[in-house]
Amino acid sequence: MGEEIGFLGLGIMGKAMAVNLLRHGFKLTVWNRTLSKCDELVEHGASVGETPAAVVKKCKYTIGMLSDPAAALSVVFDKDGVLEHICTGKGYIDMSTVDADTSSKISEAITSKGGHFLEAPVSGSKKPAEDGQLVILAAGEKALYEQALPAFNVMGKKSFFLGHVGNGARMKLVVNMIMGSMMNAFSEGLELADRSGLNPQTLLDVLDLAAIANPMFKMKGPPMLQNNYTPAFPLKHQQKDMRLALALGDENAISMPVAAAANEAFKKARNLGLGDLDFSAVHQTVKGGEL
Ligand SMILES: NC(=O)c1ccc[n+]([C@@H]2O[C@H](COP(=O)([O-])OP(=O)(O)OC[C@H]3O[C@@H](n4cnc5c(N)ncnc54)[C@H](OP(=O)(O)O)[C@@H]3O)[C@@H](O)[C@H]2O)c1
Question: What is the CATH number of domain 170-287?
Answer without folding.
Answer: 1.10.1040.10
